[in-house]
Amino acid sequence: MNSSGLSELEQLCRDSVNAGVKTLCETGVWPRPPAARRIRPGYDFPQYIFQNIKEVDAVVDLLASDSKIQELYFHQSWGPDSWQLYDYWMRLLLRVLYETEGELISTNIFRKWFKKFVRELFSDTASWRSIDTVTGLNLCGRQLKLDQGTVLTSVPKGNPGSALLGQEQYSTSGWQAGGLDKATLMTTAIIKKRDYAGLEWPPPDLFDAGMRHSAVMKAVRLIKSGVPRLHCHATAHLSSFPLGDAITYCNWEGALEVNEKEAVLERADFRLVRSLWREIMKTQYEGHEGTLTSLNVDRIDTALSRFCSTYDRKSAWMDRITDLTIALESLFGQGVGDELRHRISLRAAWLLSSEQELNQDRGKVTNMMYRAIRTMYDIRSCRVHGGIPKRTELIRWIETLSGAKYDPLHRGEAENLALEAARGIVRKAIIACMTLGKLSPKGPCWPLPKDFDEEIVIPGQHKAWQKASGIIKSKG
């Protein structure tokens, strides 16, 4: 707008703000008593109070006639619907009232907010932030920057809602992050307003924070034991004049349970988390453009999805074990016909066990991991077929998986130890298969070749496969 237009808009806005204050005084909402003059924006009076005020209508009509405003805020198929402009004006009134005393509107206060109002109103872009607090994750370091838009950071001291949403927040109802929520995922995106004209929130395809945060959690879970979970969520338009209140709610995945352990992410882990995050984003969320083929991505996706479903605190621990066996089948089940339980246990134990752990005799593996996976299949069979295990059988399962003596006084802790041990097997398997999936099929690779079971008995193959999968590091 030219200088004369700006001057006209300033005068109209000044008149409309005064008319708005006059209406509030007439309805008994304003002025506030000294102890309550700092109003809470968006809570103290309904929007309909400002309907049919000619000064407010004049401001909106002037804005609606501007071609750039039409391009930025009016959806073409809807026509010049001005509800967003009324909402913008009310935010201006709220900001002015937030700083004023009594009925008189300070000229300096009005002009400060008017300048911000015009600058943001005519801006081509809008900044949005998606926030998820993480319970059960201790971040040893100030922050891990994944890329320009996404960062994993420690929760600031004080009110996390205020610190993360900033002064731009209008609503933090439902935000209960705190206590064990020691880390926060934030993604900030700059979006062209014209791309979502007429909509209060950006279309989902323009804002992929949910996928980004899910990928971060998958990367952390793949390298660390413990039970980190996404807990409280917020989405906010970072503006002094947001088009809508911040969306906030808690219990996305849930909080930490009494017997569950916190994951600790060291600064030395940051590089690996970032690398895994990028790989997961490429293969799962960017149209299969990563280093794995589409079919292999589906298998990894199944394994990751089942693995991460075990962090759902609503499921019984044996149901989570069942999900983990499905993850192992997606990784090691290619070409398996008969003896599913034995052959998958054999394949996984052979690849994942160290040379010292492996007791090999004509293709038979009898070590702790082999027994643990067979036990996982016993639990799965019981759950799938509706069986009710005897107490002695249940104790045997828990002791086999956890490697510890069962204590009936600490049953919850014992079950979580057994579950985390099973997760550890699948965690190691997913990383190994992702690594093998990038290699040439002429040597050790994944999906497993048809002659894989025959290679198990060939001397030297075990070390070659473990080096290729990254389970043991090559010297130099």
Number of helical stretches of at least 4 residues: 16
Radius of gyration: 29 Å
Can you give the mean pLDDT?
83
The beta-strand count equals: 10
Helix-strand string = HHHHHEEEEHEHEEEHHHHEEHHHHH
Unreliable spans: 166-173, 287-292
Helix content: 40-55%
Strand content: 5-15%
Structural class: alpha+beta
Q: Termini separation (Å)? A: 65 Å
Number of domains: 3
Structure description:
This protein folds into three domains: 3-121, no CATH class; 125-250, no CATH class; 291-469, no CATH class. It is 47% helix and 11% strand. It contains 16 helices and ten strands.
Question: Topology, pairings included?
Answer:
Elements: H1 3-26, H2 54-64, H3 67-73, H4 83-99, H5 107-121, E1 125-135, E2 137-139, E3 143-145, E4 150-154, H6 160-165, E5 181-192, H7 209-223, E6 229-237, E7 247-250, E8 263-265, H8 270-285, H9 294-309, H10 317-332, H11 340-352, E9 360-361, E10 364-365, H12 368-384, H13 391-402, H14 411-436, H15 452-455, H16 461-469
Parallel strand pairs: 2-8
Antiparallel strand pairs: 1-5, 1-6, 3-4, 4-5, 6-7, 9-10
Summarize the structure.
By secondary structure, the protein is of the alpha+beta class. It contains 16 helices and 10 strands.
Task: Please describe the structure with a list of short key phrases separated by commas or semicolons.
476 residues; alpha+beta; 3 domains; six-stranded antiparallel sheet; two-stranded parallel sheet; 16 helices; 10 strands; 47% helix; 11% strand; elongated
